[in-house]
Hints:
By secondary structure, chain A is of the alpha+beta class. Helix content of chain A is about 45%, strand content about 10%. Chain A has 15 helices and 6 strands. In chain A, helix 10 (about 270-280) runs antiparallel to helix 14. Chain B is mainly alpha-helical. Chain B has one domain (about 15-380).
Amino acid sequence: MSEPEQERFEVVGAIAVYGAPDELAEGVLKAREAGFARLDTVSPYPLHGMDRLLGKGPSRLGYIAAAAGLTATIVAKTAQWWVSAVDYPLNIGGNPLFALPAFVPVTFEVMVLFASLTTVVAMLAVFNGLPRYGSALLRSSFIRDLTCNRYALVVDAADKRFGVDTILEDLSGPNVQAVELLQREKPSLYYKERILSVPFLVLIIGVAVFSSTATRLAFRYGGELPLYNFMKHQARVAAQAPSSFASSAGVTRAVEGTVARGFLPYAYRGRPDDAGANMVNTLPLTAGNLARGRDRFTVFCQPCHGRLADGRGTLTAAFPKAPTLHSKKVREWTDGRIYAVLTEGQNLMPGWEAQISRDDRWLIIHYLRVLQRSQHAPEQDLP
Amino acid sequence: MMSGTVSRTYMKPFSMPRKLELAGKGAGAAGLLLLAASVWADWTRVLGDSLVLFIFILTLGLGSLFLVTLEYTVNATWSVPFRRVSENLAALIPISLVLALPMLLGVGQLYEWMHPTPGDAVLAGKSGYLNLPFFLLRFALFFTAWMVGYRMLVEGSRRQDQTDESSFSAAASRFSPVFMILLVITISFAAFDWIMSLVPHWYSSIFGIYLLVSCMVAGVALTTFVAVLLKMKGYLPAEISTDHFYNLGALLFALNTAWAYIAFAQFLLIWYANLPHETVWYAMRARNGWGIVSWVLIVAHFLVPFIALLNRSAKTNLKRLRWVSLWVLGAHGLDMYWLITPSIRTNGGPLTWQELWLPFAAAAVGLATWRWAASRAALIPVNDPKLESGLNFHL
């Protein structure tokens, strides 16, 4: 070993090579009796019982896997709760938004994925010494034999009993076929010359550039690979196009005389005063009905007429100002008269017959009466 | 092979310690007394409960036999020293033939498809399968198949103790994979016949697998419990180490989790689709006090064993294994009760003193079967060619 070589390398351990597993096991026991504690073995295949012989406790990887699994469980559950119940609630088949049973499969998959990936990365990073991409054993002249038909005892240089000058003699014995020091490049040199070396960095950057460019070009020229047969691409008949089906139109017309639920024909078209005289609000004044009326009022009326129906709506800028509904005229109108306006429209307001069902229109009127009474309370209302 | 160690206890048939024998007789007497009181109070309730006892004992036997076929199929060595324990416990299968009597005699009371409402199209459509002659024929077929497997594997293994014929092991290795397929099919259909058809309008295609996994959990739990007790009392060879028990514990842990997986898979699909003709089965298990039983089942059959066995060291701790395996057996009993009883009745409370005879009867039947089976051969398969390597197993 030349002088500069010695400066480049440091001793990290030593190996003793055996020809049979039983001899290795004896060697392990002898080494432990001699006071060595940081021991390991190398064999072409797993040797059952060797962990116990080496005095090794259970691997700590299990705790890393458990912590990762627990973290992923909490993250997955929280994410699903946030997406499905808070940020974008979707009613799926009437199930609760925070559907615990439905979240279990995804939680389980995320937990398994995260735990296994973390375990592999932790094994490489914590226990195998990333970013160093090789073990000192690979530099040993016996590595070929150790993956084929030889067995080795490894002593870590951090062992208290380890002495660079004495270790080879300590490890020798009748069954030992060879002993050797394990060396590796000193960390300072290693990281400077291997990790930060130009060829290595060029390789990493080259791989990154090549794979992203290839992906980009594949998408650009390879065409779109649809994951699903999206609805917009599916075969269909346009609404107005002729069709060979039934009435020969893309959208079949309703049968003559069909009435949609809740949208009964209106008998006093163009005769609002007759409607006012003859139509009566028969829906009962219940808390549920008032809540529904308020809900519909908020959706359809409030934008122009305002929250209190006082004409101070939220759409004010370029929109014509809607009148207050607390005027004496409106207050003295019968429910039927208001119903006529709601149904057919008045002045700039369109008729709401197509948008608001018959019952909902009556309920809006109930709620409007509540609003009117709140602003013009009669004397007997006062305590 | 082991001729120098004939004096060891595991080379001889098991003789029941006096205390255990007394305990068995006591449990039997208590069970009979409580049974008589329950019959006097409400005999129809006892009919449903005796179906639970039959299924419980049968699943223990089938699970044990499954473990034996598993060993031959995958050519396992670590389990060879435990195999005689499983073989002895498989004797619960012939015993359960006796316990099936109430089901066969009370088939008219238990099963709605025996007397369908006129005009019931669903039951009319199923009448080609759900009718008494075919039901009895299938019952006979299932038990014939199981008894063939029992005679081949268990009796054959006992014969090997005397004759030292290694050809038996080879024959069993060829027989077991085929028999395992047969076991899967027969257990699935037994689940459909005896349990699922209690609510004949309801169906779940995973139901057979549910009972199959339950059988395996029950078999491994019982084998583990008995093996741990035998080991602690010194009936098993010293070579059997915590490494062997680690495997039993790992198997128990894995199968128990598999049970939870299957049980949840069935629940999730039905819960999500939310169709009345499917949810009715779970509705029976959520109302009239059964909701608590369902929650107890989740905690007792999944959470507690899962946490208790998760750690590696837990699976090598004999004391831990002893209580967890007994706990899983209890949870399995509750599972079978939960699976069957709400389909029969939902009134009168889920559990009352009238069910007290069940654990006593199960314990008495188990001890009597063990006494009968274990007294016929050594406690380990002494002439099995894989015994040596099985005893020398290390993790």
